[in-house]
Design brief:
single chain; about 475 residues; alpha+beta; Immunoglobulin-like; Beta-lactamase; 5-stranded antiparallel beta sheet; 11 helices; elongated
């Protein structure tokens, strides 16, 4: 049997094959997306390509390279012009050298010649385990009275994070947030320095981690660091008050601007400590030029000039001088208006009338130990009228007669500016600002009351407890 070949047909077939070959050579190869910019979700790397001709590609593989070997991973066509491969077991996280190998019209090709990408997302951060995060976990001693802290955050390469935001609160102040700086070398490493204007005695903090549209807080419960001796101080003072059967309020405040108090927000009788409010209004009107220290004052049975009345009120707690000054200043409306301007509308400091010299209605002037202590601290900080006037008022208070004998019974006190308060039914109140022998400073107010018992020693004992904690650097 003979087979005949039509030479014309043969030449046509050969021509088509040769033309197709040269056409394939001249046809641009498909272009791929830049793998280095691809976000690797979970454990899958997806590539896209764009066809520049009617010719398709096939047999697509991702080839991973290291110093010792190459790993070829077949890629699966997930949608048209998209191929995907799972990287879970094939590689560790980090910088990976690769190329894409594919078949194009019978020719084996690769793209790029040599490329790299960062494999840094295996898992969703909502599954983040505590063991996979190294986040600054200070102990209280490492932050006590500091003003500058450095926070570090380091997450394993099993995850990718877009950014991290630190939320923190110092000494019960405003909650602040700051974007942490991301390391250029290690994608999941963050750093931030914070500064506090006041020495740190309490710190609450956590971070928000972001991955795409997902945000989680780490840790789930914010980290809270607080001085355990604060509770110890409160417990010691409460135990003392309970053992003596006295009603108690006290507040302590230092430069940290974080009050320590027991029953500090309760409204209490102020007794003669209310004279601090009269002193402030008097100095305001003196500063405004409404009054002069040499002005004569003849009111409510008092005779003398304003300076003399002021000294009698603050040094010896003279009620007649106080009544004359309060009347001259404009009474309770004027005095309370000024205090609200300083402390806010909701202050519990309230002046009704000057304490009477003998008998009369008692207990109508009010304070809370929290508010009175904050007022004294404002005075120390130079925030009342002016720094110069604030300093003069504190200096006058340092000359207050020591009715309770605290200077003699507490040797650790170097200097005290104070105002005492006492009246019938056994209410004792002391407020002021103390500098200790070890150069510690704080404002305070103590209120005690016990029916039918005259005993100012309660004030001394409670103040001793506070001063001892301060001098031992516990609070």
């Amino acid at each position: 049997m003979k087979f005949f070949i039509d030479y014309k047909v043969f030449f046509i077939i050969v021509f088509v094959l040769i033309a197709g070959y040269f056409l394939a050579l001249l046809t641009p190869a498909p272009s791929f997306n830049d793998v280095s910019q691809v976000l690797i979700q979970e454990q899958n790397l997806t590539i896209k390509y764009t066809e520049n001709s009617w010719l398709g590609i096939g047999n697509v593989n991702l080839v991973l390279k290291n110093e010792n070997q190459e790993i070829k991973l077949p890629m699966v066509e997930t949608t048209k012009k998209e191929y995907s491969v799972n990287l879970d077991e094939a590689t560790q996280a980090g910088i990976i050298n690769y190329y894409i190998q594919y078949n194009f019209f019978g020719f084996e090709k690769r793209f790029p010649e040599t490329g790299t990408f960062q494999k840094n997302v295996y898992k969703n951060i909502k599954n983040l385990a505590e063991s996979e995060v190294n986040f600054s976990k200070f102990d209280y001693k490492s932050i006590f009275k500091k003003q500058d802290l450095t926070f570090n955050l380091d997450i394993t390469d099993n995850y990718y994070t877009d950014n991290a935001t630190l939320y923190y609160q110092v000494n019960d102040g405003e909650v602040l947030k700051v974007l942490m700086s991301k390391s250029e070398i290690k994608p999941n490493k963050y750093l931030i320095d914070i500064h506090s204007d006041n020495p740190i005695k309490k710190l609450v903090y956590f971070v928000n981690l972001n991955q795409g549209d997902l945000t989680i807080a780490y840790p789930k419960n914010p980290i809270t660091l607080i001085n355990p001796d604060i509770d110890n101080l409160k417990n010691d003072i409460n135990s003392y008050a309970n053992s003596k059967g006295i009603v108690l309020s006290f507040t302590y405040l230092d430069e940290s601007d974080m009050p320590i108090s027991v029953n500090g927000s309760l409204s209490r009788e102020s007794a003669s400590t209310i004279k601090v409010l009269v002193l402030i209004e008097l100095n305001k009107q003196l500063a405004d030029g409404q009054l002069k220290l040499t002005d004569r004052l003849e009111k409510n049975g008092f005779g003398g000039d304003i300076e003399y009345a002021m000294n009698m009120m603050m040094k010896f707690s003279n009620n007649t001088a106080t009544a004359a000054l309060a009347s001259k200043l404009g009474g309770k409306e004027v005095i309370n208006k000024t205090i609200k301007e300083i402390m806010g509308e909701d202050t519990k400091l309230y002046f009704e009338q000057a304490p009477p010299a003998v008998g009369g209605v008692e207990g109508i002037n009010k304070l809370s130990t929290d508010d009175m202590t904050k007022l004294i601290m404002k005075m120390h900080n130079g925030e009342i009228i002016s720094p110069e006037v604030s300093a003069k008022m504190l200096d006058l208070m340092s000359q207050c007669y020591d009715w309770f004998g605290v200077k003699n019974t507490i040797p650790s006190i170097n200097k005290i500016s104070m105002k005492t308060g006492y009246y019938m039914y056994n209410y004792y109140i002391l407020t002021g600002y103390i500098e200790t022998k070890k150069q510690n400073e704080f404002a305070f107010t103590i209120f005690t009351h016990k029916e039918w018992q005259l005993n100012q020693i309660y004030i001394n004992d409670i103040l001793k407890i506070i001063v001892n904690y301060v001098e031992q650097d516990k609070i």
